[in-house]
Design a protein that fits this description.
alpha/beta, Rossmann fold, disordered N terminus, Twitching motility protein PilT, UCP008505
Length: about 180
């Protein structure tokens, strides 16, 4: 269950909300815990400073595998998986569903899949609290899947990948 910590709302500080693939790709591909442990410490420090967070539904995705990433998420980052069960997020989610289900470009299966995934809640959270979505998904105009960047564009939400976020925050991993 997600912590009842409320997102920090400010127009002065840029804040980021992380997609599951940020954690998963880093863990599996380029920032493995045993090779670059400082990356994971940096994430915790950025979260402590109120600059990054994720959502409860991403946490649910990370808990599907019993691996070091799940253990890290529960022991080190658990406090920063924020709830999507707020009036603001639910309102944004409704707007997002209105857009997706009213969009004739996407197949019905894609619309229903998007509605059931953490991706839609991530975009809704970002819209509700003016966060930037961090994801490794790329825009795709296939009618078979609604991608995070496409939904972000439709909702006026900014998005970028992990490396762009780290540069924006002037982070030096292991420097």
């Amino acid at each position: 269950m997600a912590q009842s910590v409320q997102p920090v709302q400010s127009t002065k500080t840029i804040r980021f909300v992380l997609d599951a693939n940020v954690f998963i790709n880093a863990h599996r591909l380029y920032y493995a815990f045993d090779i670059v442990p400082c990356f994971w410490r940096v994430l915790v420090e950025l979260a402590r400073r109120g600059l990054i967070a994720s959502i409860d539904r991403v946490k649910d995705e990370l808990q599907k595998n019993d691996d070091p990433l799940k253990k890290w998420a529960l022991s080190e980052f658990d406090h920063w998986f924020l709830s999507t069960d707020t009036e603001e997020v639910l309102d944004s989610y409704g707007q997002l569903m209105f857009w997706s289900f009213g969009n004739p470009h996407y197949e019905d299966v894609a619309k229903h899949q998007f509605a059931d995934e953490a991706d839609s809640w991530l975009v809704a959270f970002a819209k509700a609290y003016n966060y930037i979505v961090v994801t490794h998904e790329q825009p795709n105009h296939s009618p078979k899947k609604i991608k995070i960047p496409n939904a972000c564009k439709a909702m006026g939400v900014r998005y970028m990948n992990t490396f762009e976020m780290l540069r924006k925050l002037n982070v030096k991993v292991c420097a």
